[in-house]
Request: fold
Amino acid sequence: MRHLMSPLDLTVEELDKLLDLANDIEKFPEKYAHACDGKRIATLFYEPSTRTRLSFEAAMMNLGGKVLGFSSADSSSAAKGESVSDTIRMVSCYADICAMRHPKEGAPLVASMVSGIPVINAGDGGHQHPTQTLTDLLTIRSLKGRLDHLTIGLCGDLKFGRTVHSLINALVRYTGIRFVLISPEELRVPDYIREDVLRSNGIPFEEVIRLEDALPKLDLLYMTRVQRERFFNEDDYVRMKDFYILDSAKMKLAGPDMLVLHPLPRVNEISTEVDADPRAAYFRQVQYGVYVRMALILTLLEVKV
Reply:
């Protein structure tokens, strides 16, 4: 039995196989419509989510399976003090696979150690968000045709942004990757990412403050929101939240083939006028998220189609 806590739980070969399966699901959805008949996924979400939770639920229903779970800690026995370990032991009696989001780093890992079913980390605090990374990789590979030899700009909250941390970890395994890290001083990537992931792997990167300076050199721009829930005081959040706003004027500085991705939800960091730009790929990214989660469910349940 396998779990998914980090994108690095999959080798590059396994990842390519998973993305191939997701592309096949995209092309031939009817082939997979009953692959998980009789199977259940438990979505255990201890903090709010729209895309990730509904994406997992849509993925399982598209495969013919059923869904159970909760959408906040307040609506679960966690409100009574039940531990994550006890919850997953109990849920293992009801479901075949579980997707867990938790505000505490490492909570899904703790659950996986005692679980009787595969556990998928659907986001743990500011740590990892592996299925968003799988979504990002599928989007990039499908729209760019490759996952190597790319210059990728990461913009916004690079300190607390778990999607950014997971994506960097995943992409450093590919040849010819270069990063431009765009953030204010207060929201720069953590030291362990800079030293243990980028420098130790010999990955070229630069850190800049101005988005305008980075745009002309990028193949891909990954925007992130400044996350109110990760800040300890409101004043710091208010000061940082509108530091970057991507609009049509800034898009004129970018190349004709540059893609814009965003894990969503957005607040103000991408103007709605950018939505009509053919380079805006963030809503297509959402659809790819369903395909890749379908592929992941099939893979962890070892369902052959």
User: Anything to note?
Assistant: The chain has eleven helices and nine strands. The chain has a mean pLDDT of 92. The longest strand covers residues 40-45. The two ends are 19 Å apart (CA to CA).
